[in-house]
């Protein structure tokens, strides 16, 4: 059984509650580099040995939404200020939207609410007009997907209005990465990735709920919003309380727990999948995605995460079916290739016996 070393991450620069517009990673390991593969596209590799337990990446979300049942009473509801994302537990200090948009929107303090006003004002009218209708007609999944898109557009709007210079001291190696809205635009995924029926369904959603206008003044053409959905669906992360990516399971199996949020990370989304990942990942208390090496990673190796809970999908068929359904590819990692059944051949090792001679 492999041992995972846990490290405490301390940001070199304090995160301001109002500093969300640049959305650059807070930490990139100096040996973590981007490269390109003809089949996979963008990927992470390491330029030198990275020891087991090392922190490789701390990436802040560009957009994040809560995913909880009964948000009015849930203690797992996250603060709606994207620079905070701490738990907004049910107590006297938790604040709801003054316009009463939806109960999923809450802030853990008055400071978080006040400094989040510009961003939330962008989404508030849309939530009041469409949230109940989408949930009733399309269900929670489609509502969550559309809400993530609206929050991506809200952060983009703030980024466009913010003329403050980027603080490159936050992540010394961040010049390797494309972050902010440019990072979102660089994400993989297009209408060619998904089935015709799926794209047609999303096109109707864009036409009905995400058009540029007074309720949602994003200024982008419908085709770009459709493309953004294709990118989000291929790259968003579910957030869970425990790590994702363990391959050596303890005798008392513990999964990653119940999802409490969903998010899009411009830099973390570069990581490809493997059913034998060398990275485990988990959000920290600020909603930042943290990558850690689960074993020694040798120079030149690709750095991969698992796109799903490996304690739930254990055999080859269930793993590949889940990836085909959710991410539209057939996994060809070393584990899946090793688990493939041996194909029988019809070749003869010797001449057959022949009677009658």
Automatic annotation (TrEMBL):
Gene3D superfamilies: 1.10.220.160, 6.10.140.2220, SET domain. Residues 156-308 form the SET domain. It comes from the Eukaryota. Pfam families: SET. CDD domains: SET_SMYD. This is SET domain-containing protein. The lineage of its organism: Eukaryota, Fungi, Dikarya, Ascomycota, Pezizomycotina.
């Amino acid at each position: 059984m492999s041992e995972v070393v846990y490290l405490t991450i301390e940001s070199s620069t304090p995160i301001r509650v109002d500093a969300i517009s640049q959305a650059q990673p807070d930490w990139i390991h100096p040996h973590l580099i981007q490269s390109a593969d003809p089949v996979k596209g963008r990927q992470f590799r390491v330029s030198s040995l990275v020891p087991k337990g090392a922190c490789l990446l701390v990436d802040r979300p560009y957009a994040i939404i809560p995913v909880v049942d009964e948000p009015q009473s849930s203690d797992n509801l996250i603060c709606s200020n994207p620079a905070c994302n701490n738990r907004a537990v049910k107590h006297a200090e938790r604040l709801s939207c003054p316009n009463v948009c939806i109960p999923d929107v809450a802030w853990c303090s008055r400071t978080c609410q006040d400094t989040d006003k510009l961003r939330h004002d962008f989404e508030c009218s849309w939530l009041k007009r469409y949230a109940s209708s989408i949930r009733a007609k399309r269900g929670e999944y489609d509502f969550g997907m559309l809400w993530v898109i609206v929050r991506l557009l809200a952060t983009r709007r703030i980024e466009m209005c913010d003329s403050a210079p980027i603080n490159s001291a936050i992540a010394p190696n961040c010049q390797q990465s494309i972050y902010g809205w440019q990072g979102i635009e660089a994400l993989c995924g297009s209408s060619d990735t998904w089935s015709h029926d799926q794209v047609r369904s999303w096109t109707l959603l864009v036409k009905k709920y995400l058009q540029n206008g007074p309720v949602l003044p994003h200024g982008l053409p419908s085709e770009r919003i459709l493309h953004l959905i294709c990118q989000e669906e291929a790259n968003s992360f579910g957030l869970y309380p425990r790590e994702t990516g363990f391959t050596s399971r303890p005798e008392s199996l513990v999964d990653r727990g119940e999802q409490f949020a969903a998010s899009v990370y411009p830099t973390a989304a570069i990581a490809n999948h493997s059913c034998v990942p060398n990275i485990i990942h988990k959000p920290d208390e600020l909603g930042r995605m943290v990558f850690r090496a689960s074993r020694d990673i040798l120079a030149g190796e690709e750095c991969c995460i698992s796109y799903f809970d490996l304690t739930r999908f254990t055999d080859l068929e269930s793993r590949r079916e889940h990836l085909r359904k959710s991410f539209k590819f057939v996994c060809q990692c070393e584990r899946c290739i090793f688990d493939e059944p041996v194909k029988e051949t019809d070749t003869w090792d010797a001449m057959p016996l022949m009677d009658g001679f």
